[in-house]
Specification:
There is one protein chain. With 233 residues, this protein is an alpha/beta fold. The chain has 8 helices and 12 strands. It has a 5-stranded parallel sheet, sandwiched between helices. The longest helix has 19 residues, at 188-206. The chain is elongated, with a radius of gyration of 20 Å.
Length: 233
């Protein structure tokens, strides 16, 4: 196995355990940060725990199929890459795959070298272009700075909330947010209501600059996740 580590984070969605394990082994040999799941439900859980750059998605899944998953992912995670794997080779089937949101449509069995090349090319296309510092959180000045020019004033509570979400860079549970925001004197019910108000206010402030992308996503039953690449200043 190679010691080289690719930077792309992948989730492989394949309900056939043997095929999934074979593909996992093949892709891990190319050094990817890879997680394998067996269907839509497990995919949703994996994405709540940590986002991914690219989905390698089987079309014929039990339960929710790949077409439906791709359509849903395009709405929820518009910037995610989707490589669709399928035995369907008809032109109309490929068209349906691309229309559902696939970036790459490959027929099975996909050779690992070709699949890796497709993933790498897609990742390069999707990689944000010099936007690593597009969003800066100035915790001293209580403001968000967009592209070094636009200053968005924040309250102390808003700034603290954004700092916690930005540092974690994954779903942050409600109780963790409450502890970090030092509002343990509130009941969990009252804190949730306060949090909803803060999140709503922050979305109103940030969304004019996010091309309609929801900057803070709610994760049902858990908490919230930052969907912008925020750096602290």
């Amino acid at each position: 196995m190679s010691n080289y580590r690719n930077t792309a984070s992948l989730i492989l969605v394949e309900d056939n355990q043997r095929l999934r394990e074979e593909l996992e082994n093949a892709l891990e040999a190319y050094g990817y940060d890879l997680r394998g799941v067996d269907g839509a439900e497990a995919l949703d859980v994996a994405l709540q725990q940590r986002r991914a750059d690219i989905l390698v998605l089987d079309l014929n899944l039990g339960g929710e199929d790949g077409i439906s998953i791709a359509k849903r992912m395009r709405i929820t995670f518009p910037n995610i890459g989707i490589v669709m794997l399928t035995a369907r080779v008809q032109s109309c089937e490929k068209q349906e795959g691309y229309q559902s949101g696939a970036d790459v449509y490959m027929t099975k069995p996909a050779r690992p070298a070709e699949l890796s090349a497709a993933i790498n090319n897609l990742y390069k296309r999707l990689a944000p272009q010099p936007l690593d510092d597009a969003w800066l959180l100035d915790t001293t000045g209580l403001r968000m700075i967009f592209q070094h020019t636009t200053l968005i004033p924040l309250t102390s509570s808003e700034c603290t909330l954004l700092r916690v979400l930005a540092v974690k860079n994954e779903c942050v549970d409600i109780d963790v947010l409450q502890e970090n925001m030092r509002e343990n004197e509130l009941s969990i019910t009252k804190f949730k209501l306060r949090l909803e108000v803060l999140i709503s206010r922050l979305r109103q402030k940030l969304m004019p600059y996010t091309a309609s992308i929801n900057p803070i996503q709610s994760v049902r039953g858990r908490g919230y996740m930052m969907c912008l690449p925020v750096k602290l200043q």
